[in-house]
Specification:
Elements lengths: L2 H6 L13 H4 L8 H13 L2 H15 L10 H9 L10 H13 L5 H27 L3 H12 L2 H7 L5 H21 L2 H15 L9 H11 L7 H15 L4 H5 L14 H8 L13 H19 L6 H12 L1 H19 L13 H26 L2 H22 L6 H12 L5 E4 L5 H9 L8 E4 L17 H18 L4 E3 L10 E6 L2 E6 L14 H4 L7 H20 L3 H14 L4 H13 L3 H14 L5 H12 L3 H17 L1
Parallel strand pairs: 1-2, 1-3
Antiparallel strand pairs: 3-5, 4-5
């Protein structure tokens, strides 16, 4: 059946009062025949919510778009996209290629802004696709529009599409796969099946979470097209199409090590490619929690869902499950299985709780789909009582509730804290310095500033574990992990001992030279001989960026701001002003009150000053945030030993050993 025949079968109720707007798209002077023009008008009248969803969501995203680099991995993704490098696992080649179009051809703002804009556009396309899906599976355009915007303005999705992230594109791919999957199950034709599998393969290049929707699709095909298994030729073509879509990952070995782009690590051998594509470095975090951890994550998920849609709208997802099961069981199966698979994976995933929320994104999408069915059912019921205008009132109310509830915490338009932090670090370094970074908090911000904006070309930047800027030379990665780390430590020693260039560190962990120590200098540490500790330590920190508070600051931004105060404490401690130092550490903990690492580090500082009660308080706070960290239990055991509580100390040590065995 062709498109024209399909449009002809539209129900008359699809013709909406929006008809006066349709000639704008299809004027009378259109060279098409009248029958085709009429069909296209009907199609436009049915799906007017799709362009509306795109434009309205994009408007919100542009209003709240981050103007520059943000926290965590955005800096490395921008560097990998702009220069066509290789991003962190699983590589995200489709986003890199799409974002490169924006950074290369859009003469607007700096590179970070352009790639943030690319992310926003993929998010708006995903919202348009969601509106199209819901309008296709329901009969209410207002419900489809309201639901799509409610999801688009949910706090997690919104906050991810206004920075350089892959989740907008990944969500677009998921919605496309779900829609084509249902269409394939309905039509049971070869072309739809091949298209479905191709999109499944292509979607897998956007994010590994795509595989979580596959079980529901396979279940749907087995239910609606059971005879398919008797056609091996068709199945062979389908899996060939899947491989064809996934073949875009060839980009990774082709671009590995080439150009000025960010390269997470070498992807030259098949083993390296497989580890990158499968996210091998994250495997230990999956199924790493005891059942209590899964329950804790389940509670966090429940609280997050309330925050995503506000408490006023939480009646709609369970209502929608009931409606979808009665009226559109295929949609109920694929959406429900996607939610369940996401929860099984995410509830058993261990990482910093402040970054866990984005891993629930698929379940948020699934609940939004069910919300669409509930709003459509509500619209039907209200229309019988109050007329068709009631649907508009409900739609506006739903969108307004989510918009007002999430606008402030999703707005990144005035947040320059990460950018300013990186600039202050680079500007404070002396000429021809070497800076060794570690962790995600600032490493990739600084990498972006040097690599993309060309700031401080005289400074050499190295990542201590080889992410983006490696101490190792090309070709030195064909050994085990421990051997690689020992080689990097050797290079660090060489840099320090030659004394030709000053060497600085962001994190004072494991000084590689025995007679050297970390001395606080500004927002970082310098490697200096212990014999030179008599040299004066000057406090030279500008706190303006740390005090910025006239906008929403998520935990990652507040963690950066807390580092100003923590470094003040390090300076004061080096000067022997211990009480003042503890006050500064306490201020850092107050700002980053929900950071497990900051609370642990502050507890460690109290421990070193023999303030055991205060140390234990911060360590317990760290464990309240993440009960599955090993180091706080070990340090608490040491404190309890010193306090004479040997039984409790033994329990803490056993807890630490048990957790160590799981990792």
């Amino acid at each position: 059946m062709g498109l024209a025949d399909w449009v002809d079968r539209l129900h008359p109720r699809a013709v909406k009062p929006m008809a006066p707007l349709v000639p704008v798209y299809f004027p009378q002077s259109c060279p098409l025949d009248m029958g085709w023009r009429l069909r296209m008008r009907r199609l436009a009248m049915k799906y007017w919510s799709v362009p509306s969803a795109f434009l309205l969501s994009l408007l919100c995203y542009l209003k709240t778009l981050c103007p520059t680099v943000y926290v965590e991995g955005t800096g490395e993704l921008i560097g990998a996209t702009h220069f066509l490098g290789t991003a962190h696992p699983t590589g995200y080649p489709l986003f890199c290629l799409f974002g490169r179009l924006f950074s290369a051809f859009l003469p607007l703002g700096e590179v970070a802004y352009r790639i943030n804009l690319a992310s926003a556009c993929t998010g708006a396309l995903a919202i348009a696709a969601l509106s199209a899906f819901l309008r296709w599976r329901t009969s209410n355009s207002w419900a489809a529009l309201a639901t799509a915007l409610a999801f688009g303005l949910s706090s997690t999705f919104w906050s991810q599409v206004v920075i350089a992230e892959v989740y907008g594109l990944s969500t677009l791919a998921i919605i496309a796969v779900l829609g084509i999957g249902i269409k394939t199950a309905e039509n049971r034709d070869e072309r739809s099946l091949i298209l479905l599998f191709y999109l499944m393969g292509l979607g897998l290049t956007t994010h590994l979470s795509q595989v979580l929707v596959w079980p529901g699709l396979f279940l749907l095909l087995a239910w609606r097209w059971p005879e398919l298994r008797r056609f091996p030729v068709i199945l062979g073509k389908a899996f060939a199409a899947l491989a064809g879509g996934y073949s875009l990952v060839i980009y990774l070995p082709v671009r590995s090590g080439l150009g000025e782009g960010f390269h997470w690590g070498p992807v030259d051998s098949f083993e390296q490619l497989w580890q990158h594509l499968s996210g091998a470095i994250y495997r230990s975090s999956f199924l790493a929690l005891p059942w209590e951890g899964a329950l804790l994550n389940a509670g966090r998920w429940a609280g997050q869902m309330v925050r995503e849609f506000t408490p006023f709208l939480m009646i709609f997802p369970p209502w929608g499950i009931w409606v979808a099961w009665r009226r559109d069981r295929m949609s109920a199966v694929v959406a429900g299985s996607a939610v369940l698979m996401n929860l099984v994976a995410a509830w058993n995933y261990h990482r910093d709780p402040n970054g866990l929320g984005v891993f629930f994104l698929l379940s948020i999408l699934g609940l939004a789909l069910f919300m669409g069915f509930a709003l459509e059912d509500l619209g039907r019921r209200l229309a019988r009582l109050f007329g068709n205008a009631s649907g508009l009132v409900v739609a506006v109310g739903v969108v307004a509730v989510v918009l007002v509830g999430n606008y402030e915490k999703s707005d990144r338009s005035r947040n320059w804290v990460p950018y300013n932090y990186g600039v202050e670090i680079l500007r404070g370094l002396p000429a021809n310095a070497v800076l060794v970074t570690e962790g995600d908090d600032a490493s990739y911000i600084i990498d972006y500033l040097k690599r993309v904006e060309g700031m401080r070309p005289d400074v050499d930047l190295y990542n201590r574990i080889g992410r983006g800027t490696d101490l190792l030379r090309p070709g030195e990665h064909q050994t085990g992990f421990k051997s690689l780390n020992s080689r990097r430590a050797k290079r660090e020693r060489e840099l320090i001992l030659t004394g030709v260039r000053p060497v600085f560190y962001l994190v004072p962990r494991q000084m590689p030279v025995e007679d050297y120590t970390f001395v606080p200098v500004g927002l970082y540490y310098q490697a200096r001989p212990k014999a030179s500790l008599g040299d004066s330590v000057k406090v030279n920190i500008d706190f303006e960026n740390a005090r910025s508070a006239d906008f929403y600051r998520d935990p990652w931004v507040r963690k950066i701001q807390s580092n100003y105060w923590f470094m003040l404490g390090e300076h004061l401690r080096a000067l022997g002003r211990d009480e003042r130092a503890l006050e500064a550490y306490e201020k850092a903990a107050e700002i980053a009150r929900d950071s497990r690492t900051v609370r642990f580090n502050v507890g460690l500082m109290y421990f070193r000053q023999k303030r055991l009660e205060e140390a234990a308080g911060h360590l317990k706070a760290s464990l309240e945030i993440d009960p599955w960290m090993v180091d706080p239990y070990r340090l608490l055991a040491e404190i309890l030993q010193r306090q004479g509580n040997h039984a409790e100390a033994a329990r803490m040590l056993k807890r630490a050993r048990d957790l160590q065995g799981r990792s």
